[in-house]
């Protein structure tokens, strides 16, 4: 019986693969199945379509036609195309060029390599341009440059954000130098858009190369990328032929650019509509707040803010700064705790780090990455968030929570690219009128060889220089260690607050003792004479507020601390919302002038 069962099973399997007569072959509609050009597996076309044109088997991304991309992103019935038909341009009278373009037009049903227009994404209005690689690899000639420039100019006029999905082989060879000039033309239009305070989001898709990479594609206020997209100026084949070396795995891919500080984030295609809608919503709130602020702001001279309010540099008759009213409860153990005890608490392993406070206090935090020069420093995190519906820029010096995380974040010691990332985000906040909240927690700036080679001193100095000129309110909160110039580079603020068990000093007590007394073991004595606790600095008028820790900060006490901070931040933002940019700038200058 067992033998017969196996025989029967074999027969069924054998019959399954037995060649069928022609009339018995199943009739499969043409186009129902395709072969993935990345993994080689057969894939069902409908599955690919429903999966945002991503292979369901290997996760490989297929290129998306412009109108399909718009259909995936833009709310139904809201897209209004601009310049759908534009006359052909052959500035060099290049032989055969017109016939080539005409053939591509007939094949793709496109007028040119980019589709532009206006639409809504989850109700958020934006101007949108989408490149289509089917049209001469979406190379940029005069018509493409003109469509982008006209689109950006119209967006500036209508005060709308711009989103461009870049995909290109670069400049269009048949148009020579005229194609090259489109790089400058599109960049100039985007510069005007930027100076008008409008948002530009660039989304890099596969491939984005050549003159497009060296112009509009890399000029976004926020730069997103699809996973594993090829992004670079020179193509990998050209580079290999030039240097005669094999390129490393992953070179010029999205993940490579993220690691090297050139994109803010990689966003999977299925999440792009949601992410773009969130960014547009924050920008719309910024624009509304900005208009309201400009309408309400009083005329005033530099630094002429209402007298006597918290944080103001109002002088006493003896010329010393007037300290704000103290709303800090006295800790029962404050008299018994030494400065060295505070140092140890500020460094405690379980103490909350910047991202803990960001997640507890703010909504919709979107982290942005990179300094646009060299890399993305894990010792500094930053991005955009919402606070009671108000967009804010949040930046924090970030320590790790375990050994692996600390190594990734260099134990909270920022490198030059970290400070340049922070400055880039601050300047972005300045453009869009967002308040800036910084969380300071670092033993000090990283002092390694590579940091010196990349200009650590210049990076810190540049932050001090540029922060002094910001016309948006800046609040810095020392949540742990505030070490030296590495901390000050994020604390040129209108107000500086400290948690009760935080410290803020010229250098570590160990370093102080080593320099002055040639004995690092005297760190406890150094901590006492350095006057580095929150109480010491508040007494000398160097900080505006102390955030009480009835119990030392930890994951258990974080909700209480976060609620206290939330209330105080709300008061801070309410006060500065009523001030003009000139008043905000003048107050910050006077704060440091009086020290």
Please characterize this protein's 3D structure:
Helix content is 40%, strand content 17%. By secondary structure, it is of the alpha/beta class. The strands form three sheets. Strands 3, 4, 5, 6, 7, 8, 9 and 10 form an eight-stranded mixed beta sheet that branches. Strands 11, 12, 13, 14, 15, 16, 17 and 18 form an eight-stranded mixed beta sheet that branches. α12 crosses α21 and α14 (416-432) packs parallel to α16. The radius of gyration is 29 Å and the shape is elongated. It starts with a helix and ends with a helix. The model is unreliable at 1-29 and 293-333 (pLDDT under 50).
Brief rundown of the structure:
It is built from 22 helices and 18 strands. The protein has 595 residues and is α/β, with parallel strands linked by helices.
Number of DSSP-assigned strands = 18
> How many H/I helical runs?
22
The termini sit apart by 98 Å
Regions with little confidence, pLDDT below 50 for 5+ residues: 1-29, 293-333
- The outline comes out as elongated
Supply the helix-strand structural class: alpha/beta
Rg on CA atoms, Å:
29 Å
Mean pLDDT: 87
Which sheet architecture does the biggest sheet show? 8 strands, mixed
Helix content: 40-55%
Strand content: 15-25%
